[in-house]
UniProtKB/TrEMBL annotation:
The name this protein goes by in its record: RlpA-like protein double-psi beta-barrel domain-containing protein
Keywords attached to this entry: Signal
Residues in the signal sequence: 1-23
Keyword Protein transport applies: no
Taxonomic lineage: Eukaryota, Fungi, Dikarya, Basidiomycota, Agaricomycotina
Domain of life: Eukaryota
CDD domains: DPBB_RlpA_EXP_N-like
Region (Disordered): 129-188
């Protein structure tokens, strides 16, 4: 019977350890703040938003130069959850706070015009890292000015060809004549 309580204590200590790790990991990933709503338009991530899009504007302290553009987050309010995409930045929002599209606010919380602002929580969807981490790809907003481009046209190339005007052929014939002479002498 002594081994049973030890096993239970070990099991309890192990379970307690894992619950502590999970709770602290969850607390790091969850952000709490004020949820407000905004009118749609061109977002800081470079796309035009509509009132029916499930999108949010991320507060400037967590904006991180736009590195969170198009990331999905999970929002929680009053026992309900919804997913949305970050497509804009909220200049008036404190750290942890979000600006929600009209439609997202309506679906998750209620009538934006009647309610105004609420306290809620959110986290990066599928993320097990802290909210200060950056993604592997970074969005770069389009440039508002475009540098002039210059093109140069190379001068036309000139080619020259030589065409013979006359052709002459000369032949030389050499003849060789050989002569032989024979002489016979007799001595006597």
């Amino acid at each position: 019977m002594l081994s049973f309580p030890r096993l239970s204590l070990l099991s309890l200590a192990t379970s307690s350890f894992f619950l502590t790790v999970q709770a602290s990991g969850h607390a790091r990933d969850t952000n709490s703040g004020i949820f407000t709503w905004f009118v749609d338009g061109l977002g800081a991530c470079g796309i035009t938003n509509t009132a029916t899009d499930n999108i949010v504007a991320l507060n400037i302290p967590q904006w991180d130069s736009g590195s969170h553009c198009f990331q999905t987050i999970t929002l929680s309010y009053g026992g309900k959850t919804a997913q949305a995409q970050i497509t804009d930045q909220c200049g008036n929002c404190a750290s942890g706070s979000l600006d929600l599209s009209h439609g997202l606010f309506q679906d998750l919380i209620g009538d934006p015009e009647e309610i105004g602002t609420v306290s809620g929580s959110w986290s990066f969807a599928g993320s097990s890292t802290t909210t200060t981490s950056s993604s592997t790809s970074q969005y770069t907003p389009p440039s508002t000015t475009q540098a002039p481009t210059s093109t140069s046209t190379p001068p036309p190339s000139t080619t020259s060809s030589t065409t013979p005007t006359s052709t002459s052929t000369s032949q030389s014939t050499f003849s060789t004549t050989s002569s032989s002479s024979s002489s016979t002498s007799t001595t006597g």
